[in-house]
Every structure is written in C-alpha cells, then in structure tokens.
Amino acid sequence: MRIVTDVPELDVRGGVLAIGNFDGVHRGHRALLDRMRRWADEEGRPSAVVTFFPPAKVLFRGASYLSSRQEKIELLRPFGPDAIAVVPFTHDYARTDKEAFLAELAELRPRAVVVGEDFRFGRHRAGGLDDLQHVPERLEVFGLRLDGDAPISSSRIREHLAAGEIEAANRLLGEPYLAIGTVTAGDRRGRTIGVPTANLELPPEKALPLGVFAVRADTPHGTFGGMANVGPRPSFPDGAPRLEAHLFDFAGDLYDAALQVRFLTRLRGQRRFDGLDDLKAQLDADRAAARRALAQPPGRR
Questions:
Q1: What domains does the chain contain, in order, with CATH numbers?
Q2: Which of 37, 39, 53, 204 is 20 to 30 A from 210 (CA-CA)?
Q3: What is the pTM assigned to this prediction?
Q4: Does residue 300 register a pLDDT over 80?
C-alpha cells in the first residue's frame, strides 16, 4: 500500500476511488469503504482512497480531530487500498478551484468513485455531486448511516468523547477509539507506587476523553491490556490533556516508542485523593476493574 500526498501521485488508472475526510473512519465511512473494496474485487481493478488532513473544521474553526494523519492511515489499511492520498488541507489548498480537483481525478480515468452524499470540494465548497458525476464511469453516493434516530457523524463522536462516553463513541466508530503517540519521559511518580506509566505525546488537536479507562495497547514488544488516565497536566491545567497508560504484565523500556492505544471502557472520572494510601487503594480497584473489562468479549463491555 503506497501513501502519497497528492491525487496525481496515486497512479491507479481505471480503478475504484473512495473520497472523503474519513475523520475517525466511523461506521458510515466503513460502509462506503467496504463498497470500494467489494467493487474493486468484483471487477479486478485497483482501489485507492483520497482523503484530507486536517479536517476543515480544524483549519478554520480550531476544532479537534478524531484521527491524526497516521491514525487515519492505520484505520484505512484494513480496507486494502492499493494507495492512499492524504492531501494536506492548508489555506492554500482550500482556495483550489473545483475544476482543478476534477481535472486531477479525470487524469486517473476512474472506473468508479464512491462518496458520501454531503461531499463537497473546491474553493468555498463550490463543487458537488453534479460536478463529480462527469468524471468516473460510475458514481455511487452513500447516504448518512443512522444510529437510532440520529446520523452517525464525526461531530457526534467528538461530543461523546468530550463527555467521557467512550462506549457510545465506540459504538458509532465500530471499533475502539484509537490514539497513536510517542512515549516520552514523565515525572516518574507512578514508579514510586508500583504503577509505572507510559506517557504519550499527542497533538493538542487530538480529541481525547477525560477519565480512567481500560485500554489495549500495541507496542514494539507485543499487545498488552492496561488502564489509562487522561487528564490535564498539573503544570498546564489549561493545556492539552495528557495520556498515561499503565500496561499489565509488561516490564521494559518504552521511551521513544510508538504506541497504539485503543480505549475500551470508561472505569471512572478523575478525582482528588486524600493521600497516598487513598490513591493506591483506588489504583488497585482500577486495575481489577480494567482486568474484568479486558476479559469481557467486545459485545459485552
């Protein structure tokens, strides 16, 4: 699978393209990407995903995102595209005329293009489905998928995360929420009480749920269950929250390693402690609760 930064670099002529922001790669996105995969397999054609980072809401409104560039690539990987174009969405790119985007797509001579019904492109979002339909041999438009009476959307997932409702967010995503970060040196207080943690460096724009969670983490040494605390840093209470993960049954050095942490279940909110004994007792309870959650099959967490 090739990763490129521009549509002309895809080089998948006559293929099936899926185009969209795909922030979080939620259940609605997955239905669209599944269609791309099936169509390409049925006709023996190459497939590619065209996506953008960051989302327009981040660039213009300072909103948070669900998936970083790296996270988005990892979430798209299971759909087996031959190539992914992650186009940097900058102020300059936002001023691109719709005709320029259409011309780039036309050069690929796509057999089919799959998009969501709300897909817009070009300067001032001037381009729409009426423009796009003239580029591929076939254009397939996916309507919004519903969860209950409300559509599945990245904005709705961000609202659940802001409220700490990880189970509701995961239901809309279709799998546990993913955060990828690099382990950095922390204050090492966890080691002094027998709960060493891996402190992940994450961009401030990354949406994170606050609280204590049961998690599963992919490390260079394998996959481990654990518990994670997400909250403000004591020295920077108004800054981006910090993610600290304690991995069960792991002993080793993770500094500078990349970790993929998946949030499974919320154990509790954050609280103040009366002293060290109170903290240790709560951590013991958190560890037991996290192990119980990890032992449950996915549908019963």
A1: 2-145 (3.40.50.620), 176-300 (2.40.30.30)
A2: 53
A3: 0.92
A4: no
